[in-house]
Design a protein that fits this description.
This protein has helices at 4-16, 21-28, 32-44, 106-121, 162-170, 179-190, 250-253, 255-264, 272-280, 284-308, 325-337, 357-372; strands at 19-20, 48-54, 61-66, 72-77, 83-88, 94-100, 131-138, 141-142, 149-152, 157-160, 174-178, 199-204, 208-214, 217-219, 313-317, 348-352. It has 376 residues and is of the alpha/beta class. The chain has 12 helices and 16 strands. The protein has 3 domains: 4-66, Arc Repressor Mutant, subunit A (Orthogonal Bundle), CATH 1.10.10; 70-186 and 357-372, ATPase, nucleotide binding domain (Nucleotidyltransferase, domain 5); 196-352, Nucleotidyltransferase, domain 5 (2-Layer Sandwich). The strands form 4 sheets. It has a 5-stranded mixed beta sheet with strand order 6-5-4-7-11, with helices on both faces. It has a 5-stranded mixed beta sheet with strand order 14-13-12-15-16, sandwiched between helices. Residues 231, 241, 243, 245, 248, 250 line the site of zinc ion. It comes from Endobacterium cereale. InterPro entries: ATPase_NBD, HTH_MarR-typ, ROK, WH-like_DNA-bd_sf, WH_DNA-bd_sf. Residues 2-49 form the HTH marR-type domain. GO terms for molecular function: DNA-binding transcription factor activity.
Length: 376
């Protein structure tokens, strides 16, 4: 059980990275003597470790960081079949990986997670003893308690209390999260956004996910749906969307949409890279499709910048092709559609990710709860 002063320290380190004892004392408003005692206890408990030594003016100071083996987390992604399941530590590193069959039956999923758990935990000598939580990422809406899936089109779920089903089977506290929100939490805790208070993640795959951190906290909105740019209308009266509306961003700029538009033009291509190849060799249909998709995505991101003024937009993609026409048009459309004084002011980072990104994000949801407690 973590005490309140220990949790304050975990929060401070998770926000700023490794800290010296003097910096920790300042962050927590403690005397240096009290801080030294607290740090000693936490090192003995295996929660903190000495990370590195900083040489500046005066005496060198040793910085303390979270011990990666202090707690372990399991993350499961219900976005793929088979569903990836990973074991992660408190550094956000993946220690072990397994797969379970994807099912639309929540009880079957809970059973599969429970059955796969012992093998996954056997990858590290103390993982079973220090397992602090399980996270599950899925496509859809999750309530603010992170226990219930309010609605998922992909899984055909409505009000499914999956977290409690998994906890009942495994005895381990479990949390659910929307896929893009889980990725954003992973970036905040362990990734490139660790020190950024306001940022958005746009995850480009078969569908388009999006999530925002505002003032250092994940912004959920009133119904958990904040950040759903996929269903912003981008072409009024356009093609029907699976959500029931027309002309959503998802119908033009998702990988699924790009491939469908390409097939309708007679391409047999199955990848963005192949459509890019066609465009670079002058195929006008391929150029038109990539222009339409890139302009739509860039316009949506420009609107996002206009509304939230984030310090970073991170675009993640699994297709491995963002340096061709599509990526160029996205960037141009962003620059063209933001207020001139914002142009070039918001860093746009593009990152290719592998299929474990959502399972990693899911484990981060459990780590987020461990570090920050129930009311972050
Ligand atoms: Zn839609």
């Amino acid at each position: 059980m973590i005490t309140s002063s220990q949790r304050q320290l975990l929060r401070a380190i998770s926000r700023s990275g490794p800290l010296s004892r003097t910096e920790m004392a300042q962050a927590l408003g403690l005397s240096k003597a009290a801080m030294s005692g607290l740090a000693r206890d936490l090192i003995q408990l295996g929660i903190l470790r000495e990370a590195d030594t900083i040489y500046g003016q005066g005496r060198p100071s040793i910085r303390l960081d979270l011990h990666p083996d202090c707690a372990f987390f399991v993350g499961v992604s219900l976005l793929q079949d088979p569903a990836p399941m990973i074991l992660g530590n408190l550094n956000g590193e993946i220690i072990a990986r397994a797969e379970i069959p994807l099912s639309r039956d929540p009880a079957v999923i809970a059973d599969a997670i429970s059955e796969a758990l012992p093998t996954l935990l056997s990858a590290h000598p103390v993982a079973a003893e220090k397992l602090a939580g399980i996270g599950v990422a899925l496509s859809g809406f999750v309530d603010e308690t992170r226990k219930n899936c309010v609605q998922s089109t992909l899984l055909n779920w409505q009000d499914v209390p999956l977290a409690d089903l998994v906890r009942d089977k495994t005895g381990i506290e479990t949390f659910l999260e929307n896929d893009a929100k889980a990725v954003a939490v992973d970036e905040k805790l362990f990734g490139s956004a660790r020190e950024i208070q306001n940022f958005s993640v746009v995850s480009l795959g078969d569908g388009i996910g999006c999530a925002h951190f505002i003032d250092g906290r994940l912004y959920r909105g009133n119904h958990g749906g904040a950040g759903e740019i996929a269903h912003c209308t981008i072409e009024p009266g356009g093609a029907p969307c699976r959500c029931g509306k027309r002309g959503c961003l998802d119908t033009v700029a998702s990988m699924k949409a790009i491939k469908e538009m390409s097939r309708a033009e007679g391409f047999e291509c199955v990848s963005l890279a192949e459509i890019e190849n066609q465009a670079s060799s002058g195929n006008t249909a391929a150029i038109r499709i990539l222009h339409r998709a890139g302009s739509a995505l860039g316009l949506a991101i420009a609107n996002l910048i206009q509304m939230n003024d984030p310090g970073l937009i991170l675009i993640t993609h699994v297709e491995g092709s963002f340096d061709g026409l599509f990526g160029t048009v996205v960037n141009q459309a962003i620059e063209t559609n933001v207020l001139p004084r914002y142009a070039g002011q918001t860093p746009i980072r593009i990152r290719r990710v592998d299929g474990d990104i959502w399972a990693r994000g899911a484990a981060s949801i459990a780590a987020h709860h461990f570090i920050l407690g129930p009311n972050p």
